[in-house]
Each structure stands twice: as structure tokens, then as C-alpha cells.
Design goal:
With 427 residues, this protein is an alpha/beta fold. It contains 16 helices and 15 strands. The protein has helices at 12-21, 33-40, 49-60, 92-104, 121-132, 154-160, 170-181, 193-224, 228-235, 258-265, 271-294, 322-332, 355-359, 379-385, 400-405, 419-426, and strands at residues 2-6, 25-29, 64-67, 75-78, 84-85, 88-89, 110-113, 141-144, 163-167, 188-192, 303-307, 336-340, 364-367, 390-393, 409-412. The structure holds nicotinamide-adenine-dinucleotide. The site of nicotinamide-adenine-dinucleotide has 27 residues, from helix 4.
Amino acid sequence: MNISVLGLGYIGLPTAAMLAQAGHVVYGYDVNGALLEELRAGRVSIGEPEVRALTQAAIGTGHLLVRDVVPRADAYIVCVPTPTVGNRPDLRCVEDAAARIAAVAPRGSMIVLESTVPPRTTERLFEAAFASAGKPIDEMYLAHCPERVLPGAIVHELRNNARIVGGRRPEDARVVRKLYESFCKGDITETDCVTAELSKVVENTYRDVNIAFANELALLAEELGVDVWETIALANRHPRVNILAPGPGVGGHCIPVDPHFLSNANPFVTELIQTARRVNHRMPYRIAHRVCEFLRGDVVGKKVAIFGAAYKRDVDDARESPALDIFALLRERGIETTMYDPLVRSCGVPLASSTQEALREADVLVIATDHTQFASLEPAEVMALMRGRAIVDARRMLDADRWRRAGFDLYVLGEKPPVAAARAAVA
Ligand SMILES: NC(=O)c1ccc[n+]([C@@H]2O[C@H](COP(=O)([O-])OP(=O)(O)OC[C@H]3O[C@@H](n4cnc5c(N)ncnc54)[C@H](O)[C@@H]3O)[C@@H](O)[C@H]2O)c1
């Protein structure tokens, strides 16, 4: 088949490469001209080695071709961004993609929206685009097929995850299913568009609410002098309980964004969802507050090193990362703050080029992301570089006993305070 993929980012590029590997001829289109140039030169900027290898192989064999315009094809797959602006969905990229497809799609084309969207978006936007182009949408096969890959394991998950194909009509789902069967080994379930849209948004909202619960428990446990990590581990031994981990907030392109798609649909019946969002949104403030406690109020001229800009472990993606919020909050208070991340290339704030550069003369170290590389930090080396002895571990990544024995004063989110600190607090 000839397939046009619109949007060659974290999702679109590996999807295009996977389809090419499955034997299709794939045209990759993106509005970012610089990205197209890079791809033409065989350069892939996504950090995951499997994505790079798959994409380079697909370009090398000539099965993945980069295009400046959307070509006519048998199928169109849309993987463009769907952000929120002021907590409201911004669907302009989908509208633009729909208009471009409507202008060229021949009768009988498959059109699949993979981008995460608020319920009722797929039919509304594509019906409008085809009406404007003067083409009957009934002559197309339209479906929403949400993507649910785990960043860090994208290639494996693209191939093996279960998929939902939500068709505008049952026959649309049946036809589009065949395309997904050509590269996806996971179970494929057919449903309608709205159910598919809602199920995707619900998955991410479920995680947001679950993490908010864990964060609330972390703060409560600190007050009770109980270790939340042990508490959650014990509670999760119940066969039907699965509480996620607390942390400095929730980041990424999906989990902090998608709940707004539901709360905007009806603000009056989504109180739990909105509250969870607020709980998670507040966590960077909590971490910044802990840093200021270590600095004992006199923050001007003090230096803080934040380790980790990425929103989660071992990925190069810093979109919506709580680490960036912590950085901004500390800077606002007049604290000289440096940030180091071994994987993130750019994130809108200057990044130190090495652990040494970030740690030099720092009063407090904040662990905002639990990258595997940070596990090899050596207390003696860190101590030799830092001016202070304080660490805020928002991920419970460091071996607290070891670092305390080395002379560090450690705050670990949700941890039972060590005996000495508890005595000092009481005194
Ligand atoms: N990244 C993830 O882990 C993930 C997981 C599941 C679902 N999703 C969803 O998939 C969608 C895409 O996410 P992503 O992470 O790949 O985004 P991304 O920002 O990495 O990539 C999107 C690409 O689309 C391009 N683009 C923007 N407007 C365009 C247009 N009108 N036509 C063609 N290209 C256009 C951008 O230049 C960019 O290269 C979003 O809806 C997201 O919520 C993402």
C-alpha cells in the first residue's frame, strides 16, 4: 500500500518506519522543513536507538520517503500534536492535517487519526474538512486509532501493544484493522470513534488520578512519620490494588494534558479529574519549598543543581516536565539554579554540560528525574564539588543510608524522617 504519515515526531516517525518495514511504501510529511532535511540526510534526532535504527533502515531501503507536501495515497495516518493552551485543547494541527488530506485523498482512502483528541473530535473535524473540499466523507474509511506506546520502548510497543480501531462506521473499522494487522502483533479491537477517543484519554487520566493519590499519600505519610514507599508496596500486595509512585509532579506530552480533554468536555461532572490535576500540579511547589527549607530562608546568592530535565527516567523528552517547573520556581526566588540531564538535548533552559559543572559550589542537589546514570553518582565525588551538604531526592533514587553516612542531609519525598531529623523537628 502507499501510505502518507503526517507528523514525524515521537509517534509518527517510528510508525512510518514500522509501516515501511512491513513492506508498504510510506511518504513522511511534516510541517517542520528542518526536520525533513535532517531525515533526507538520514539523521534521526529521536534518542531511542531502536527508533533510530528502524528509521535509518527504512530510509535506506527507499521504503520511507520524505515529502514536502501530502501526496495522494491509499491510506493517511495523522500523528500531529494535540496540546492544550490555557488548559483548553488546541486542535489546529489536526484541522490543518485534515484539510491537507481532504484536498488530495482519492475515493476509498483510509484515514486514521492517531493523535490523542477529546471525544467527538475525529468525526467532527474530518467531516468538516471533507465538506469544505466538496468530497463526500462516506466514500472514505475514517477511524481513530489511538497510540499508547511507552517512550523508551516505542518500537517494541508499536509492534506488540493491543490496539483499538474506532471506526466512523463498522466497515471503516474493519478496513482500517487490516492495515494495522500488517505490522501490529497485539490484539486489535474494533469499536466506534468516540469510544476509541474516550478510552485513550481515560487511560492517561486514570494514571494522573492514581499518581495524584500517591502524591497525596506521600505528603500525608510525611506528616504521620510513616514511609509512603513501604506503605504503597504493602498496599499493592493486595491483588486488586495498584498505586503508582509519588514524585515531583507529572510531565510528558500526554498525562498532564489529556485529563483536560475530559474536564473541558464537562467541568461540572469531572471534579475528581480536576482535583487530581491540581494535586500533581502543586508537587513542584512542594519540592521547591523543601529546597528553600534547606537554604534556611536566605536564598539569594545560593546555588541549586537540578539533576534531570526529562519528565521520566531514561527518556530525552522534557515536555511538561516538573523539573522545569522546579527550575522556574527556584529562579523566581532569586536562587542561582543549574540543570543537568545526560539525555535531554534542549528544553528551553540552559543545561550544564557535565555533572561537575552543575554541582560546582551548589548548596543543594535536587534529583528531579531518576535516570539510571544518576545511580552511579558517588557521594565523595559529589561532596568534593558541592559547597553544601543537602539533597532533595524527589524520586527516592539514591541509597539514602549510604548518602547520609557519607555526611549528606537528605530529604526524600514521602520517606519516614530519619531518627535524628525527627528528634530535631520535635525539639
Ligand atoms: N509521545 C508519546 O509518547 C505519545 C504517546 C501516545 C500518544 N501520543 C499522541 O500522539 C500525538 C503526536 O505526539 P508526538 O509525541 O509524536 O508529537 P511530536 O511533537 O513529537 O511530533 C509531532 C510532529 O507533527 C508535526 N506537525 C505539526 N503540525 C503538523 C501538521 N499540520 N501537519 C504535519 N505535521 C505537523 C510537528 O512538526 C512534529 O514533528 C499527540 O496527540 C500525542 O498526544 C504521544
